[in-house]
Design a protein that fits this description.
- The protein is mostly helical.
- The chain has a single domain, classed as Up-down Bundle (Four Helix Bundle (Hemerythrin (Met), subunit A)), CATH 1.20.120.1760.
- Helix content is about 80%, strand content about 0%.
- It has helices at about 5-15, 20-40, 45-65, 70-95, 100-125, 130-160, 170, 175-185, 185-200, 205-225.
- α4 (about 70-95) packs antiparallel against α9 (about 185-200).
- The longest helix has about 30 residues, at about 130-160.
- It is globular.
Length: about 230
């Protein structure tokens, strides 16, 4: 079994394509040490992915607990989620165990951590009915935004035999504004914003803002899909 050094991992096994700034400059620098360790064990990349999901769930549990320190512990586990999200791919390339199962775990991990974050914040804000409703709205419209591309895929494949446009924002619009919208819905940026909320203790404002964001994100995405052809 190959046991590369941290320098070899950084030069040979890290992939930086389309990574968020925080992932490139912080998570990737830390993940090499995790990858170095896991490469010397019998732990598989998929097991690292499951550990990553567990970190995201634990982060959401701490966010659900009242108290400033619990909020900080929550975001700490969420940052571990991001680091392990880099690590599993690096270890998969080192051990030559890249698989469709691993890709699947990566995809569902992002969705699980979203639901974990916003569910945790909803439980944290349970005494404020208005914010609580907004939080559940964020979860519902986030899940809707994940489902409608699946329905579009089924419709396209039934009509043409192929999926015509898997990421409508990237193909229909190339503007910076649309890219910012996509970034705001990505795990690294959500976790960065949640971290900001934990430090300054402004979770209600963030939860309400994301409720509006995912509401608009879903309907704008749906509108663009329906007006493509």
């Amino acid at each position: 079994m190959e046991k590369p050094s941290t320098r070899e991992i950084r030069n040979k096994y890290q992939v930086f394509s389309r990574n968020a700034w925080y992932v490139r400059t912080v998570c990737r620098k830390l993940s090499v040490y995790f990858a170095w360790f896991f490469a010397r064990t019998s732990i598989t990349p998929n097991q690292i992915s499951l550990l990553m999901i567990l970190m995201g769930i634990i982060g959401g549990v701490f966010l659900a607990m009242p108290g400033y320190v619990n909020g900080l512990l929550g975001v700490l586990f969420l940052h571990l989620f991001l680091i392990l999200d880099c690590t599993d791919g690096e270890v998969a390339r080192i051990k030559r165990k890249v698989s469709s199962k691993g890709k699947f775990l990566d995809l569902i991990a992002n969705d699980i951590v979203f639901v974990s974050i916003f569910s945790g914040l909803c439980f944290r804000m349970y005494q404020d009915s208005f914010v609580l409703i907004a939080g559940f709205g964020a979860i519902i419209f986030f899940l809707f935004s994940k489902l409608f591309p699946l329905y579009a895929k089924v419709a396209d494949e039934k009509l043409t035999g192929k999926y015509l446009n898997p990421i409508i924002f990237n193909t229909k619009f190339k503007s910076k504004v649309c890219q910012i919208i996509i970034d705001l819905a990505s795990p690294p940026h959500v976790i960065a914003i949640i971290t900001f909320g934990a430090i300054f203790n402004i979770f209600p404002y963030i939860l309400f803002s994301y409720a509006i964001f995912f509401f608009l994100y879903f309907f704008v995405s749906l509108f663009l899909r329906l007006n493509m052809r």
